[in-house]
Design a protein that fits this description.
With 306 residues, the protein is an alpha/beta fold. The chain has a single domain, classed as Ribonuclease Z/Hydroxyacylglutathione hydrolase-like (Metallo-beta-lactamase, Chain A, 4-Layer Sandwich), CATH 3.60.15. The protein is built from seven helices and 20 strands. The strands form three sheets. Strands 1, 11, 12, 15, 16, 17, 18 and 19 form an eight-stranded mixed beta sheet that branches. It has an eight-stranded mixed beta sheet with strand order 3-20-2-4-5-6-7-10. It has a four-stranded antiparallel beta sheet with strand order 9-8-13-14, with no helix packed on it. Helix 5 packs parallel to helix 6 (253-267) and helix 6 packs parallel to helix 7. It is globular and about 50 Å long. Bound molecules: fe (ii) ion (FE2) (2 copies).
């Protein structure tokens, strides 16, 4: 698929699970927020929201990837970081879990104009989790409510472009044997619970001039290595500048963590920037395995490419 080359990409981490003032910056590439200079505190929460600004010569597009777990955190952090929702050109919802669409309805309601929302149509199936501490959910992202709140829905199952600049992969083609959907994740279709194989989750992929691919997996339920491999296949680009997002590894156990580290070593990204649902245990293993390329994702961090 022809994916345009971007001249510059900025990614603002609006909501993520972590904040740590001692995490290092890499000037010009990874810039941490200085909390003491913000007009109000930012919050970390179990959710994800990224503001992605794309530039192709003199054209610019701003995409909000996911809307955190609640309006409370999303709007607090946008305000604290001095970012305005009015200037968004599109919203992309990575998959149908509420820690990614929790602020969506309120965001649509606060905007004074219709907003394009990109998502896979399987996001609308109710989802639930079977955990050692019992059933959690179901949660449902309701299509009718999105339309009523002003969403102009752009539903894709296969690869698509957002505003001609960013690739969203559609359902991820699995190629790696160790990345299998977790047994406790369920979805409900026509009243019947079934195992969730996360066909609704898509990666967002950017092609940056001179640097290669930036691959963002929000929860990466299909597997972060599968997502990067699929991004390489779709774009025909091997070089990976960065792998970003929640990798959902601790919940899969040490074997999955070790296999994923081996898979990422083969891909050899210049930057591995993980947070959200990766899990502390997996983050510690990634940090030890990639002392040069790994950094933890924290609220307020700005990533710069190109
Ligand atoms: Fe998820
Ligand atoms: Fe998540």
């Amino acid at each position: 698929m022809e994916v345009p080359e971007l001249t510059a990409v900025n990614i603002d981490i609006i909501v993520d699970n972590f904040i740590d003032v001692f995490e290092i910056s890499r000037p010009g590439q990874v810039e941490r927020v200085i909390l003491g200079r913000l007009k109000k505190p930012v919050m970390a929460a179990h959710g994800l929201s990224l503001l992605i600004t794309l530039r192709q010569d003199d054209q610019e597009t701003r995409i909000l990837m996911d809307t955190a777990n609640s309006p409370l955190v999303l709007f607090n952090n946008l305000e604290a970081l001095g970012l305005a929702v009015d200037e968004l050109d599109a919203i992309f919802i990575s998959h149908g879990h509420p820690d990614h669409y929790g602020g969506l309805l309120e965001l649509l309601a606060r905007r004074q104009k219709p907003t394009t929302v990109y998502l896979h149509p399987d996001c609308y199936y109710p989802k639930l989790l079977i955990t050692p501490r019992g059933r959690i959910g179901p949660w449902t992202l309701e299509r009718d409510k999105l339309v009523a709140a002003g969403a102009e829905l752009h539903e894709n199952t296969g690869p698509a472009l957002i505003n001609g600049m960013a690739l969203i992969t559609g359902s991820v083609e699995p190629t790696v044997p160790y990345e299998t959907p977790l047994p406790g994740a369920k979805r409900v279709i026509a009243g019947k619970e079934e195992h969730d194989n996360f066909v609704d989750e898509q990666a967002l992929v950017l092609k940056v001039a001179g640097q290669g691919l930036v691959v963002i997996g929000a929860c990466s339920h299909p597997g972060i290595v599968n997502m990067v491999r699929y991004a390489q296949k779709l774009t025909g680009v091997e070089r990976v500048a960065a792998v970003i997002g929640g990798f959902h590894l601790t919940a899969g156990g040490d074997e999955l963590i070790n296999n994923t580290i081996a898979g990422l070593k083969e891909i050899n990204p210049a930057l591995i920037f993980a947070g959200h649902c990766t899990g502390f245990r997996a983050l510690a293993a990634l940090s030890a395995s990639f002392p040069e390329s790994f950094l933890v994702s924290c609220v307020g961090t700005k990533l710069l490419f190109g």
